[in-house]
Amino acid sequence: MPCDRTFEQLLDYVRTARxxxxxxxxxxxxxxxxxxxxxxxxxxxxxxxxxxxDSDAGEFAALFDTILINVTGFFRDAEAWQFMASDVIxxxxxxxxxxxxxxxxxxxxxxxxxxxxxxxxxxxxxxxDELKQRVKIYATDVDxxxxxxxxxxxxxxxxxxxxxxxxxxxxFTGANHNLSFRTDLRRVVIFGRNDLMQDPPISRVDLLxxxxxxxxxxxxAQERILANFYFALSRHGFLMMGKAEALQTRTELFQPYNxxxxxxxxxxxxxxxxxxxxxxPFEEAEDEETPVPTAEPAFExxxxxxxxxxxxxxxxxINHAARAMFGLKLRDVGRPLKDLEVSYRPLExxxxxxxxxxxxxxxxxxxxxxxxxxGDERFLDxxxxxxxxxxxxLIGVGITFADITRARQLQDDLERARRDLETAYEExxxxxxxxxxxxEExxxxxxxxxxxxEExxxxxxxxxxxxEExxxxxxxxxxxxDELRDRxxxxxxxxxxxxxxxxSIPQSVIVVDSQFxxxxxxxxxxxxxxxxxxxxxxxxxxxxDIGVPVAEFRKSIRExxxxxxxxxxxxxxHDRRGRPIRCDVxxxxxxxxxxxxxxxxxxxxxxxxxxxx
Length: 613
What we know:
single chain; alpha+beta; Rossmann fold; 5 domains; 7-stranded mixed sheet; 5-stranded antiparallel sheet
């Protein structure tokens, strides 16, 4: 998903809505974290996710937790902390008097492991009492939830894995299966929210620890934060960075103290290079009483092309170099300068001569571009110097042409080489910065992977716990199933036993509940009245049409259900074959093992009508 204007608008919305400014963060890692939340809430693009933030206030908290990856630990990168204990802290103490306060700033402290690590190291160096009197550790972060956890100072065994056993025993106490940093030393560390991009820095600190925090910001944001760090440090303060961060290509504000351990000091010697002054003025020519004759050897054999023009504009002398350069002859001496090509090519000389004579000072024109008759390009420096007699009378102008073609070529070559070198240096610098950025991105990705791994481990532990609970539940269900099977077998056995008993009794046995519903119907009863048990069970006994007036049993059944002693009764009717019978009926209560009335048992003795029972 490319970083486009819509994503920048989303960042502006987050800043406006909640005051969190992430515009200084590196886009690749920032976009990955936004996309992680988008996958969770199933938002297809930046606009949909913005709508989700607008409608669900709780999504902001989840987004901020995802962005602020709090990967930290006690004494993380042990060698760096060993160097801190053996070198940096002793130097800080040596720079201080016995009672001078020591101020420390832990920027991006997350859940507090690093500031508490600093507290332990200083306590080891100066003792608990002096620590509480002299040392203040200001621990800041933008994540309020992490700061709350840091203030509680309660950590699991896993979080304390980096703390040596002897330090763990001295500085931590038990707290609900976890360990808590000592309360009396906890006041040394002051936690507070600080946005490195927006809030002012803490000042006059002797040690500033900001490890793997800058790598989440882009270059302009890093420069701004480093400027604040420079302001925060005292003159001899130390800056401790993370192993993925390098300052030598970022800024000149800090100098390496130990580059391998990423410890830097404040560069107090930064000065602006003084500006170079103007070039030295040209020396004026010596006074001459008369024009220099061509026969004078020094003038004739001079390496620079020269000729002399008097105040009337006539050429009074031309040396050999000038004749060779401009194709002049000895016969040209005495001619007006304006009649010679050299008066206007390679440059206009007459106006410059007037300026030199009127101002009585040399006039110089540099880098005059001149194409010789043969076609070669030359570069000349031309100087026109007024010639004054010993009595102060202006007698003419000496004109000198210096061929600087070779020097100009060398200068051009030098300039080209310098530009090539600058280009190569810029490319190298760009490559170094790209490598550092890549390294920071890799470190950021690694920390994201560590966070993801911890989340997966936590999820795995939860799944293992759930699996154990399911196994336990399964075992309980198996036990219950076994018990239920045993009870079912017992019930089936009891039912078979009861059926056997009912089948063995020659009298007809009927069992009804308190609602007169048939619960049991013996085989003799089925033989007597022609209805099977499955036809009558659950039916109201008083509604059955079986050949006898069963409604006459209502009173006796009610008396039995009420606990009264029900007397037997005799009724007459017909059996299933229509033969007249007389039925002697006895009523007995059906009770549970808790002596609760469950129903009534009717025992019917049937005989032909008129016979003895």
